[in-house]
Amino acid sequence: MKNYTLYSLFILLFLVSACKEDTSEKSVPDIAVEEVEIPTPFLWEASNMYFLLTDRFHNGDPSNDINFDRSKKTAVLRGFEGGDLKGIKDKIEEGYFKELGINALWFTPVVEQIHGAVDEGTGATYGYHGYWAKDWTQLDPNFGTMEELKALVDIAHNNGIRIVMDVVLNHTGPVTNQDPFWGEDWAREDPNCKFSTYENTTACSLVENLPDILTESTKEVELPKYLVEKWKAEGRYEQEIKELNTFFTENEYKKTPRNYIIKWLTDYVRELGIDAYRVDTAKHVDEASWVVLREQAEKAFAAYKTAHPDKVLDDNKFFMLGEVYNYSVDGGRAFDFGDGTKVDYFANGFDNLINFQFKYDAQGDYETLFAKYDSINNTSHKDVSVTNYATSHDDGQPFDITRKKAKETGTKLLLTPGISQVYYGDESARNLVIEGTQGDATLRSFMNWDDQKNSTETKKVLEHWRKLGQFRANHPAVGAGKHTVISNNPYYIFSRHLTKGKYTDHVVVGLNLPFGKKEFFVDDAFAKADYLIETYSKQKVRVIDGKVSFSSPFDIALLEMGK
Questions:
Q1: Is residue 353 very low, low, confident or very high in pLDDT (cuts 50, 70, 90)?
Q2: Which residue of 4, 32, 118, 405 has the lowest C-beta tally within 10 Å?
Q3: Looking at domain 482-561, which of 2.60.40.1180, 3.90.650.10, 3.90.700.10, 3.40.50.300 is its CATH number?
């Protein structure tokens, strides 16, 4: 459902005689009033973003489940499980994301991963998660093909969903018997990071056997021998070299490791119209590299729009959000490395950072949570934004690891100012405690589609997330509007108001309401309306003397202006 604001365009037509002799009065015609509908704009800072592991969401094509002889016995949830791009596309077409009110979709990297496995002594681990790149120019067949990625992007855009590409510039995949080291001109294997200073956080290997790209290097390098041989065997060496030479010449760039990878990453924007990046391990790369990546991504996005005017969704610029691990809004805009060095990533290419603080703030009451993030949006983070999450793929201390507060999670996450990041399965209370797993694997089980079909409780949780998600998607004021408390006693009632150019949006929300009959005052913006729509229980409610009175079997009310 779209939200519209009406405005009037007044045109006064004065009729004046051309004849000087005619001094008779001319009547002024009635004012012409034209009503124009303003569609709900897409605002990144108010978006409802879904994050999923490509391999763990939905298996759309079982024929691509095994490639490169990745058939060794793995530790629990450490191998490929079959999820792919076609599976994501199928769910978009089914309307799954639209029902959740999702308008931005982030999935883990789909570039070609290392072919071999690591940790074979304790049970093999493959690059199912997408963060172990072997070739940035090619998709991994376990995830799908370029044609399938293009189809996914097009289908998403046709459904009003922006695509967030997960990108890695920090490191290659681990070295295995099938996956050689890129060479000392390209990467460092040691020292390992210690995370106590800027230097030992950026100029180091994140963990053992995860070669760190020399992004700060100004030395020109040749392509790794194995990559040249790979491209030649695939019959595309000449084309790749031609494109690289054009890129370096046009931009007057040196052939440094960073610049090669930036070219490869921005190709997806240039060719497919990717809308945004989620940047992995951002604090482990010198910030100057992110400025270059942003510059080239914007250039590629503009080129795509020029080449495909029929596919342009709006005039939004390319968007970049970063994972600066442990970044908290409490520290302001800059991240402190612990040695006195602070970096403001918002001033170095990023529009948004993932906020690791939200899961702690969400332990408190609604008003303390909402007021804090409203204040942040209007002070320290004005003109930028943060992404809030309750659960993620590599955070072993989520807001609700036992899934006993699934509805509360949805209410707090989806009604807090800022971008809301829904982790796959949040909306269906997917199990986060999997027996036999080690580390992050317990957070990465396959999507619980059967529970959505067979469990009554899961269906109730899912319906709650859907109602809140759709309300948020229909009303940018929820994520980006001004928060105002209407009442804290006897019920918690608040409003959100947003004005963006000629567009305005206003909502009133009630929480912790009594089940059954409810009665409370709304604010001035709604007080003189004849009726409002309470979207959670799907009913019209009359407004009498600035107050609404209605019954529903829920303890929540989501009010919008009647259409």
A1: very high
A2: 32
A3: 2.60.40.1180
Q: Per the residue annotation, which of 81, 140, 179, 280 is the catalytic one?
A: 280
Q: How many CA atoms lie within 13 A of 115 on its CB side?
A: 9
Question: Do the bridges between strand 557-561 and strand 531-534 make them parallel or antiparallel, or are there none, so unpaired?
Answer: antiparallel
Q: Are 541 and 562 in contact (CB under 8 A)?
A: no
Domain spanning 44-174+268-478: which CATH class is it, in words?
Answer: alpha beta
For residue range 497-539, list pLDDT tens digits in order.
999 999 999 999 999 999 999 999 999 999 999 999 999 999 9
How many whole angstroms separate alpha carbon 53 and alpha carbon 56? 5
pLDDT tier at 18 (50, 70, 90 boundaries)?
very low
Check residue 13 and report its DSSP letter.
-
Judge contact between 409 and 399, C-beta under 8 A. Answer: yes
Rounded Cα distance between 305 and 274, Å, is 11
Extract the tokens encoding 251.
């931009």
Exposed/middle/buried for 156, CB within 10 Å: 0-12, 13-18, 19+? buried
Q: Is position 280 annotated as part of the catalytic site? A: yes
CA 122 to chain centre: 34
Q: Which of 323, 374, 395, 534 is catalytic?
A: 323
**Residue 323 annotated to the active site:** yes
Ordered by start, the domain boundaries in the chain are 5-38, 44-174+268-478, 482-561
Token pair belonging to 325: 């691990």
